[in-house]
Design goal:
Elements lengths: L3 H5 L16 E4 L3 H12 L4 E4 L1
Parallel strand pairs: 1-2
Length: 52
């Protein structure tokens, strides 16, 4: 059985980062905990990137 986000979300391959980016927080892992952490940090005004 696959989770809802695996069946409902489209996953696109992204190009690797080629330039430096500046963020307040880098969240490693886009699972439920990582996504929720990024969401709530962003809601508090932080600039967040999620890396998978």
């Amino acid at each position: 059985m696959r989770s809802l986000w695996q069946t409902e979300c489209s996953f696109e391959n992204r190009e690797p980062l080629r330039n430096r980016i500046h963020v307040d927080v880098a969240v490693i892992g886009a699972g439920l905990a990582g996504i929720l952490t990024a969401y709530f940090l962003q809601q508090r005004g932080l600039n967040v990137v999620v890396l998978e």
